[in-house]
Amino acid sequence: MSLTQINYSEEQQTLQIIVRVFIDDLETEINTLSQDKIELGTEREPLNIDRIYKSYLNSHLHFYIDKHPKPFQYIGNEYKNDQVFFYLEVAEIDSIQSLGIQNTVLNNSFQEQENIVKTSIYDKHKSFILTRNNSNAFVSTKK
Amino acid sequence: MKRIYFTTMLLFLAISSALRAQVEENKTTQKGHTNTNKFKQLKDEFNTPNSQHTASGAPGANYTQQKVDYRMDIVLDDANQKIYGEENITYHNNSEDTLEYLWVQLDQNKRAKDSKTPDIEGDGAETYYTPEKFASHFIDKPFEGGFHIVHVNNSKGNPLSYHINRTMMRIDLPKPLASGKKFKFNIKWWYNINNHVPRRDRSGYEHFPTDGNNLYVIAQFYPRLAVYNNVEGWQNMQFWGRSEFALEFGDFKVNITTPKDHILNATGVLKNPKEVLTKIQLKRFKKAQTSFEKPVLIVTQAEAELAETKKSKEIKTWTFDAKNVRDFAFASSRKFIWDGMAVNIAGKSVMAYSLYPKEGNPLWEEYSTKVVAHTLKEYSKYTFNYPYHKAISVHSKNQGMEYPQICWNYGRPRPDGTYSDRTRDAMIGVITHEIGHNFFPMIVNSDERQWTWMDEGLNSFVETLTELSFDSNFETGNLPRDIVAYMEGDQSGISPIMTQGNNVHQFGPNAYTKPAAGLYMLRKTILGGKLFDHAFQTYAKRWMFKHPTPEDFFRTMEDASAVDLDWFWRGWFYTTDVTDIGIKSVQQYRVTDKPTEKMMQLVKPYGITTPEQLRPFIYLSTEEITEGEPEKALQVKLLDDFIEANYKSKEEAKLPTYFYEVTFDKPGGLVMPILVEYTYADGSKERKKYPAKIWRKNDREVKKIITSDIEIKNIVIDPDLETADVDTSNNLWPKAKSSLFDKKKEKLLKE
What chain B residue is nearest to A21 in terms of C-alpha separation? Predict the structure, then answer.
């Protein structure tokens, strides 16, 4: 299970994204994909971990604003108990008519992976459960 | 007196004329509705109480329960990973009913080649495959699992008619079994033991390639009688792999033959330690029984490592005797190190044991047995004194699985023996949880096949209290704040707790965390420790060695506490509603004797147009202060006169200075107490708890007048995150300026 919370800040004109994943799940996923076996969130974590996370998230999370793909900025991560929180931001969004999300986080390693996506845009709340068979969500956000 | 009457009359007239105006506008006839009040009693949802399961939640005068005794001879063939068994079963029909057949559970058939379990899982092409995964999907022949039933005979050795429906076997009785009678029969069987590691099975073996040995954790390994009870009849719902077991209590006498150099432990009292242990091991075995401070090594790592290399071809037989248990399981390997210590449970000595291979050290020798001991003590406090003589924690890769007196637990250090805090805490957590299962469901024997939460939820709850007493900073993952991410998720992926386990999305949060967090909330926030603990203990004691239903739990908690909790059970267990309580607005008032605009509007239809025409009143006003108006409450003459006439002094009257009207709203469907913290201008804080019943007449919104001597600076709802409030952005007044994201961003960018 993962949880992605997406909020649009009108004031800052940014999409603020927090992604929560269980550390063990992400470790399993990254270790099946890469050659080297690594540990996450322990004292043996590789020093370039941010680069690993950035590239993983870049290939498994995609945002489309008004149907155009928009890259996000990786701000950083924080470990809390058995979970890791990623903070991402899509900048310079002065308005938003629609938001598309593709989320395939952990889908490779877990047959029954459920990625929960919640959006809060112009005070309207929506939530989705994305799975392997359906990893896309679309929100129409006209004011 | 008269004038007061007149004014009240006026108000009444004003209100009733307003109502009349409304009725006239609504020309169509209103539709009625059924009782949808959140505090409605659960008469429709609950089974009707009877003399078996009573209205108080206790077992009734006519409660019955079957008993099944087993005598088994088991052979573990380590060389070929096969297990053979012959069992003599005595079935006691204690029910009032006559039985025409018996149902026997064949759980191993879940792994048979013709098992339907894989057929109910959807799958598709993967993005990529590891070679192992590819082979298991497309190359390897399916594992030859499942029971081979050699015979089913009556006590004279003649075959009985039986029919196998996947994981259930019906045995047709030669003549119906009357109430109070018993039936003896014999089943001979064998099966290929599975490697439990790749598919995370509940039992099987792990192979260690470096030394060529296997570590067996063996369970659901013998044909077991299904439960026949007062509410389900036969509980013969198929075993699909997830929803667990329903079992009767009985007595077991079991002989298990293993290679001579194996170390084995199992449910029950080891009857022949002299025959299966070396002299020195036997001495340590006895020493452990008086060691209350720390574990004693009964089989050392050096002895286990020596056995790993020898691989004896000789055999030996272990004999166990278990009274009043619902199941039997065992673990066996040459690799086992064994330690144990005694635990004092209300004056009775109980043994805490651990079995682990060297791969578990140094983590296991340091923590496992101590955690077992701590768990037995803590659970005994919250339920009843642990009635069995021992509890064993067995190291087994990737597993957390429970059986009477014995359980399998994960937590393996890295190959170099080091381990992360996460590995250690996960291991402490799983041992606490699985040892805790000795209480729920091994003794308070609920029907796991039907209701996962009755054992997993109750157990996770006591586990949480136990972990917090082991280490007050332990991250239990079962607190109300931990369930928010699940509860606020999309409704299509959430089921009520009262749902059969096979059909549930997000099984863990549904059946473990949510009930545990709910009970934690009930104890800490709603009932308080004293009332809750007595009621919870009452439930545990009433249903020790019996089969409780959900209603028995719900009813007992109310019966023993005198608190109506139907609203809580309804919301938390029967719906997927969420908690969301917020502060809609805060309005400050001052005290005055000048009639407010609202008052003047109210009396206008009755010809009153100037304040002088009104009898003097005291008003709470938000209007701007005008000249001549009293600045302070005590300057209101009417009030001052009243105080003087009725109180000894002005100090005694304790007139507050600040008046606020707080409007709480409730976007969430759950009713919950409102927990509020008021912070004053001088930094002091005050907390107030309004019971959930505050929502009984208005489920959306409720107002409260708050008074104080010092100005209120801010108000926060649920400051300690006790109620699983899914949206805390409305919990603050005044509203927070920067979001959580902004704060984190600032912090992360600084680093």
Answer: B485
Residue whose structure tokens are 């047995």: B369
Distance CA B472, CA B594 (A): 56
Helix (H, G, I), strand (E, B) or coil at A28: helix
- Residue B266 belongs to what H/E stretch? strand B263-266
Å from A42 to nearest chain B CA? 6
Domain ranges of chain B: 67-119+135-450, 578-751
What residues contact residue A86 under an 8 Å CB cut-off, 6+ apart?
A: A17, A18, A19, A20, A21, A53, A57, A74, A76, A77
Pick the CATH number of B67-119+135-450 from 3.40.50.300, 3.30.750.24, 2.60.40.1730, 3.40.1190.10: 2.60.40.1730
pLDDT tens track for A99-139: 999 999 998 888 888 899 999 999 888 888 898 888 999 99
Is B736 an 8 Å CB contact of chain A?
no
Angstrom distances, CA of residue A34 to CA of A23, A52, A54, B179, B529: 16, 10, 14, 64, 50
What span, in angstroms and rounded, lies between the C-alpha atoms of A35 and A54?
Answer: 17
Can you name the residues that pair with A63 across neighbouring β-strands?
A: A70, A101
Both tokens of residue B257? 């033959």
- How many residue contacts between A and B have a Cβ separation below 8 Å? 79
User: Could you tell me which of A114, A108, A136 has the C-alpha nearest to residue A26?
Assistant: A108
Cβ atoms of residues A58 and A45 within 8 Å: no
- b/e per residue, B572-597, with b = 16+ CB within 10 A? bbbebbbbbbbbbeeeebbbbbbbbe
Q: Which of B481, B490, B491, B512 to mutate to test the interface with A (most CBs of A within 10 A)?
A: B490
Phi/psi at B312 (5° precision)? -60, 145
State the smallest CA–CA distance between residue A50 and chain B in angstroms. 12
Question: Identity (one letter) of the amino acid at B42?
Answer: L
DSSP 8-state assignment for residue B452? H
Q: Are strands A73-80 and A2-9 parallel, antiparallel or unpaired?
A: unpaired
Residue B340 token pair:
């144990």
Residue pair B748/A16 in contact (Cβ under 8 Å)? The answer is no
Are the CB atoms for B253 and B321 separated by under 8 Å? yes
B189: which 2 tokens? 């069987």
pLDDT classification of B26: cutoffs 50, 70, 90: low
**What are the strands of the beta sheet with A98-103, ordered from one edge?**
A68-70, A61-65, A98-103, A136-140
Question: What is the DSSP code string of B553-588?
Answer: HHHHHHHTTT---HHHIIIIIH----B--EEEEEEE
Angle in degrees, CA B436, B441, B446, rounded to 5: 150
Distance between CA atoms of B528 and B49, rounded to whole angstroms? 28
B705/chain A closest Cα distance in angstroms: 29
The Cα–Cα gap between B162 and A37 comes to 52
- Percentage helix, strand, coil for chain B under 3-state DSSP, each rounded to 5: 30, 25, 40
Say which of A82, A108, A129 has its CB closest to residue B127.
Answer: A108
Q: pLDDT (tens digit, 9 = 90+) per residue, A73-109? A: 999 999 988 899 999 999 999 999 999 999 999 988 8
ipTM surpasses cut 0.90: no
- Write out the two tokens for B566: 């139907």
* Phi, psi dihedrals of residue B329, rounded to the nearest 5°: -145, 160
